[in-house]
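During the second half of the funding period, the structural biology subgroup turned its attention to how the target accommodates small molecules. The most pressing case was magnesium ion, which had performed well in the primary screen but for which no bound structure existed. We therefore specified the complex as follows and requested a full 3D prediction, including the ligand pose.
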Amino acid sequence: MSKRPGVCLVVSGPGLIHALGGMANANMNCWPLIVIGGSSERNQETMGAFQEFPQVEACRLYSKFSARPASIEHIPSVIEKAVRSSIYGRPGACYVDIPADLVILQENVNSIKYKECCMPSPVSMAETPAVCMAASVIRNAKRPLLIIGKGAAYSRAEDSLRKLVEQCNLPFLPTPMGKGVVPDNHPNCVGAARSRALQFADVIVLFGARLNWILHFGLPPRYQADVKFIQIDICAEELGNNVRPSVTLLGDINAVSKQLLEQFDKTPWQYPIDSKWWETLREKMRTNEAASKELASKRSLPMNYYTVFSHVQEQLPRDCFIVSEGANTMDIGRTVLQNYLPRHRLDAGTFGTMGVGLGFAIAAALVAKDRSPGQRVICVEGDSAFGFSGMEVETICRYNLPIIVLVVNNNGIYQGVDADTWGKMSNLQEAATIVPPMCLLPNSHYEQVMTAFGGKGYFVQTPEELQNSLKQALEDTSKPCLINIMIEPQSTRKAQDFHWLTRSNM
Ligand code: ADP
Ligand code: MG
């Protein structure tokens, strides 16, 4: 969000180990983070010191730089290197270890030489011949597709990418956190025909998106076997992962997008609006949108996911941050909830980490407070996802942050059961073997976690209750709020065309 590293301070041993999940999450997402850990005294090392643990070694797998300053004089240069490493090249996590004996050491501050902060990260551009080649491959495409990833969001490529999309009339698909770089309601966004677009495109340009599980590795059957990939990334080692690209453009997304634009300025070109490809995509979008609308209009109770999200979408302020985690909650929510601004969606990400939602919402709220007061954060949580860090509601209330938490509650992990079924299962002998382990207690009143700390809480079961509570929550800016939304415990996503789409997180 800020292009600057977040900093996390932890105590030694278990404190540092608890931070490893977050470090891994940041590193996998290519986000800058600096973790500073206290550690046991060096002269007690190997003796079984309090919370002793090989921390520098442990962090190596979760970071791009992990070090312990040799002395107090070395701290400034190690910190400078950590900051620089976190933002230069592919951003990532860094670890600095400060042993207890350095913490307690008495030193004359004048003897420490402070280091100036590093310069902003240098901007790299692609080689001109490769840019020309890429432009020519795009011009000759029969079924082109741009994929906009979170690298594009990070590099602030929104203006240049929007220009490229509009000037060349190209269809684009955002990845989950690439949403909003070009707005979801842009006429060239083909998010609602995602599978179709991936499956039949003959030229795909990747703007800061890896061909990992999120993009099905770039392989058939999700793609044509002979699809031409044009990869744009700041990390050379990423180029060629899983596929053999037709063109590779090593450089900053924003800079390279401008280089591509120059080519299309020199020799203007537009992908024909009346092409068969646009027609196919539009037709598929229409049928997919109609299918979601139909599910959303179902009046049966408890509500299904689509009903819930369509009511939420109706009321969401355009400039809000959307934070989301959970399985179906996150996957279905992503398809219905729209992003209009770049860097306004945060979710479980590349690593699929649960437990990040409330922390991300708090971070987003703090950024919003600085930049544009009044901006809201909507944190859309599955009930099981909420359980991972639900107690952060206390932090939200302590700082009185403008956050609305929506818990989409299906009584379980993936799916749960209703109270009657639960009762029958629990009454049977050997209940432990009969109540499925993914079932959570039915009808849990998560809104009371919010009221416990002075925030507002709502328990809603009908579309009207949902509409009213969300309206009130958006109007009343004085307090954080949690709306606990009961849905059909067996509700799932709409039927998919292909069996490989039914797995969660696809
Ligand atoms: P998504 O989840 O949106 O598909 P990924 O995390 O897989 O995105 O990919 C983001 C890619 O963007 C990474 O390969 C990373 O190296 C790259 N990246 C990050 N910042 C920049 C930048 N400023 N310019 C170019 N590429 C970048
Ligand atoms: Mg659930």
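Two results from this model are relevant to the next phase. Residues 29-30, 90, 149-151, 154-155, 175, 177-178, 208-210, 212, 214, 233-235, 238, 252-253, 350 surround adenosine-5'-diphosphate (ligand 1) (CB under 6 Å). Confidence is low (pLDDT under 50) at residues 500-506.
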